[in-house]
Amino acid sequence: MSTETDPIPETDAASDGSVACVRCGRRFVRAELLALHRGLDHFESLDAAEREAFAAARTDEREALRLFRLKALFALVVLYFGLLLVYAFVG
What we know:
The chain is mostly helical. It has one domain (19-90). 59% of the residues lie in helices and 4% in strands. It has 2 helices and 2 strands. The chain has helices at 31-41, 48-90, and strands at 19-20, 27-28. A two-stranded antiparallel ribbon has the order 1-2. It starts with 18 loop residues before the first strand and ends with a helix. The relative contact order is 0.08.
């Protein structure tokens, strides 16, 4: 049984599959989110492998965000022109 002062091992996985940060104890549902957390909140204390994991997770996150933005823009353009056509025929 761990207390607040005991560090939670990185490999400590809860029954839901979450992983914990060894430095602050916060839990994350995916290892990529843990790597991002470490890089943003504990960058000074990271070793080379952890910094590399942070860089890879950050690159993946940027690519995913870029793709989401493109999809959202496409959806807005389709919605705009769809409503414009409805207005042209109904109005």
